[in-house]
Amino acid sequence: MSIIENTSISFVLNNIPQRLSVNPLSRFSDILRDHLGLTGTKVGCDAGDCGACTIQINGEQRYACLTATGQLEGCDVRTVEGLSTNGSISSLQKAFLEEGAAQCGICTPGMLMAAQSLLDKNPNPKKQQILDALGGVLCRCTGYTKIVQAVIKAGKGLSNKQIDNSISSVGTRMEKVDGIKKIKGKEIFGADVSPKNSLWLKAIRSPHFRAKFSHDDPDIILQRFPGIKKILTEKDITGNNGFGIYPDIKDQPVLAKGHVRYRGEAVVALVGEKETVESLNDEDLGLKWEPLEAIRGWDAALSGKFEPVQSEIPDNILAEGYLKKNDVKKGFEESFKTAEGHWITSAVEHGYIEPEAGYAEKVGQRLNIFVCTQTPYMDQAEIAQVLGINANQIRIIPSAVGGGFGGKLDLSLQPLIALAAWILDRPVRCIYSRPESLASTTKRHPVRAFAKAGCNSEGKLTAFEYHGDFNTGAYASWGPTVADRVPIHCTGPYFVPNVLSKTRALLTNESPSGAFRGFGTPQAAIAHEALMDILAEKMGMDPLDFRINNAIRKGDKTNTGQLLEYSVGQVECLESLKNSWIEWRKKSLLYNTKNRTLKQGVGCGCVWYGCGNTAMSNPSTMRVGINHNGKITLYNGAVDIGQGANTIMIQICAESLGLPATQFEFVMSDTDLTADAGKTSASRQTFVSGKAAQLAGENLRAQIIHLAEASENAFLRIEENKLIVKDDSGEHSLILSDILPKSNGDVLIGEGTFDPPTTPLDENRQGDPYATYGFGAQIALVEVDTLLGTTKVIKIAAAHDVGKAINPTQVEGQIQGGIAQGLGLALMEEYIQEYSENFHDYLMPTVGDMPDIDIILIEDHEPLGPYGAKGIGEHALIPTAPAIIGAIKDATGISIHHVPATPDRVLKALHDSKLYNV
Amino acid sequence: MSAYVRPDNLEEALEFLSEQPRILLSGGTDFFPARVGKPIKENVLDITGITSLRSIEMTSEYIKIGALTTWSDIVQSKLPPAFNGLKKAAITIGGIQTQNAATICGNICNASPAADSVPNLMALDARVKLQSLNESRILNLEDFLIGNRKTLRKPNELVSEILIPHPKESSYGNFEKLGARAYLVISIVMVGAVVELDKKQTVLNLKIAVGSCSPVAKRLKLLEKEAVGQKIKTIRIEPKHIDSLKPIDDIRATANYRAKIIPELLKRVIKGVVKL
């Protein structure tokens, strides 16, 4: 080992000559971000797997994270900051903005630079060339569709869309209010900023699935490594060394006490200079591991042969879910046909491109925590109990969140940086490496399920039974929620008179399984949709017709006995797909007569999903204020994780207030400045927080109307410090600067709170668990290469009942992105501990894996929602995998019972079926 | 002695190598991913300043591919049809970002069982030129690669060129790589081949190698021998042709799966050399 001396390196960066004296072996991404302050170039993996760091070197796209800075001598370099000239954005950036190509925005700089490299050479590229150019950048939010559209549009020079938001904003394709920052690389994510004198924190984590451990006395280690300022161990925790999302389950230690229960669990945390904290290894710390026999998988958890994962839970059954509606035994006895099967799904990684990152800073007797999170208010309470201080001593300031999908609902680095900053009274920052993020954070639950369904001689469902074991890993995370939510949804969106469902969340020595877009229902949907296909086949009915025949309708009672009165668009969703269904089926049959080994098929998946938390209060409060200058601010407590809450909350509030959405500014989820709008989860923000935003706007409007003594239907406008209210009697002016400001500086503040009405569930889980449900159906056309077992998804048509599309561009973006994740779940995503701890061994869909997607939006008005709207975030993903698995069956005759349907699993199923000579 | 050096000529580079062992760095696409989250403190010889090594040169004996030739250079160069497999491989490596940085020479020297260049270069009968300060030697690629991440390169040597004998006229290359997604793919199985055909599409000569199914990609010598004289359409793949391969289970696929699809990929590669 040697010391690498700084070297003088000269190059041109965004047309400006640079001369730096830096370590020539530094990744250029680090030099851009840490040395030059150009944080538009993002880092998602440091391994050339994600493409977020794509820049141009001599006009060619390159990964900055794989470029040694010394290699740039004499080069011409361009980053996202160099795309705009004289402050005006490029036509490519404009097209990204207009098409909604940026959701969370973390991949956007990389996408832009990859696309620009193509357009520089080929201003009007063909679609295939665009796919090739973008193939090296991963996006986890958009499903790539709008990105490709934006590049096509920029190439054709079509950019120039005008949207009139002056009269009405709900229902328009308003550009994202934070979009301009995202496409300029100016958005500030968790890793993009920290106070100058910040120390770095790095957690040392277990390489074993289960082990005892010991280490040297921290004081001795500190003497050996002057670059280390503090070694945090469990002894340093001033409050409770446990966290978890339930008030009564805080089972996951912040730092393990002598015993680790999964690979990736934190044991100590090093705080100090970056280089030193990164270079220390187990030996330096005197870390000694004694590996213990680990419980892996369902059978081991239930065998009773091993020491339980948590000693307080001897049978490893963390939670059980249950639902009983009428008499399933009788239902099956009366069935004309039944179908049943077993299904297994794998652990799935959220795959947000932004790894966990942030900093904590002590300010007096309070802590400011800047971090990527989906749940600032829960973080506040959780961190407070770990530190043993009051929640109001913690201020969470969420960064822009580079994707979440449920994975940023649990604490990750928050308690560590908080503790370090609290103890040391120095700002402390931390950025997870990709392997660390993969190893230590939650996954989608692997499920092993049995399901059975029956129908009568008319093809009407009679009974449904579901038993699912959910591998919830070493700690609770959201395991009980998943075990509870699945039984309610286990049948799919069908009316079934008799239902029995039992689920268990099992503890194992694996990654904690938590919340991931759908809370277990995507796994269950694979089973219920396969059963619909089998029953349809047994009845000789068309699978789509069978679903229409059984779809739940207004006036039906759900599995929990809840009467659905409004906004039940399931039948319309299915009907709207019928033409495509018939046409695709006809074409695929014809194709198959002409092709011996390539087989096409069409499948269908359906979804229903309750918006909001299950059978419990989950209110949101929103505030909107106007200051003495006429500045309107929405204090939006609903974290935007890319899905667009910042934009649609403004659209909704502007509509009810009666002032243009374009005049709004916003504050996002700063716990000191905004009110609690709950978690960004459970597809609840549009429905719950959106309603609160509507009520806040109405409340402010009522105050204005009252002050101006104007009529209800008056028009409002702001002219500098005047609020002008015009009605039939004329114009009334409110001089805003004359009104006494409130504590936050606003002169007028409107507030709205909405808590969706639900009822507790009884012992059979009967009751009204959700105030509304979203519905949907998707069909997929696939092609299977029966000699290789590979599956290509050619087309998907998706119909979703969203009540009202507040912003159709964003709703489409949710659906396209959900489809991409559903496709990954169906065909390639499988997290295997120890082996998938990077993004080249954990495979997620690339731009080339995406099918053409048709979207049909059904708007069956939800009276409780804001302007009729309800959620879409999770609904979008749930039907995709079942549709693809069904299409593989339609194409080949084989049933896939273990997802993902990787080429080896498909080929084995083809072989075992004896239908094919493989 | 500085831990990072970036000379601009080969002689200087070889001198640095003669002083002490150094990690060789060019495109960085294997170097950096192996060092995620760790500070880099090794002795590194960065060869990217030796611009003379970025070249594709035709001599009377060989087509010479310089050590800094990138995958994108291969895609953009006019090369005989025997190189079609290598070109096809080039566009499947990582993203274009990787193709713009990574060198095929580095791909060989990294010696991964899944190195995309190797089956193609084996089928092209490639040799590598190793140079040290006082010596230069040429080895067959097949001899140079001795195991997973193992080569015969000595610490004081670098591979300066890949040497490919001029392919016979009517030689066509082809490549098939099976992975589980469209881009950024690491192969489950791959096959590279060069077939020399007469006008009736009878095989005059076949060279074919399989990657990702053994520690080092393997030529299938028996198949090569038996294919000669057969019509391209009628070549049959039999178990004996592939019994030298030892596919393993890993996270990308099972050994059983690999074994099953090898014959199919071999067939596709051979039949796909010309548009029939």
Commentary on this structure:
- The complex is a heterodimer of chains A (918) and B (276).
- With 918 residues, chain A is α+β, with helices and mostly antiparallel strands.
- Chain A folds into four domains: 1-165, Ubiquitin-like (UB roll), CATH 3.10.20.30; 199-292 and 354-402 and 408-440, Aldehyde oxidase/xanthine dehydrogenase, molybdopterin binding domain (Aldehyde Oxidoreductase, domain 4, 2-Layer Sandwich); 447-613 and 763-913, Aldehyde oxidase/xanthine dehydrogenase, molybdopterin binding domain (Aldehyde Oxidoreductase, domain 4); 620-754, 2-Layer Sandwich (Aldehyde Oxidoreductase, domain 4), CATH 3.30.365.
- Chain A is built from 23 helices and 31 strands.
- A seven-stranded mixed sheet of chain A has the order 8-10-6-17-14-15-16, sandwiched between helices.
- In chain A, strand 18 and strand 19 (461-473) form a beta hairpin.
- The model of chain A has no long low-confidence stretch (mean pLDDT 97).
- A five-stranded antiparallel sheet of chain B has the order 4-5-10-6-7. A four-stranded antiparallel sheet of chain B has the order 11-12-13-14, with helices on both faces. A three-stranded parallel sheet of chain B has the order 1-3-2, covered by helices on one side.
- Chain B contains nine helices and 14 strands.
- By secondary structure, chain B is α+β, with helices and mostly antiparallel strands.
- Chain B has a domain at 171-271: Enolase-like, domain 1 (2-Layer Sandwich).
- Classes of the chains: A alpha+beta (918), B alpha+beta (276).
- The interface between A and B is large, with 72 and 52 residues.
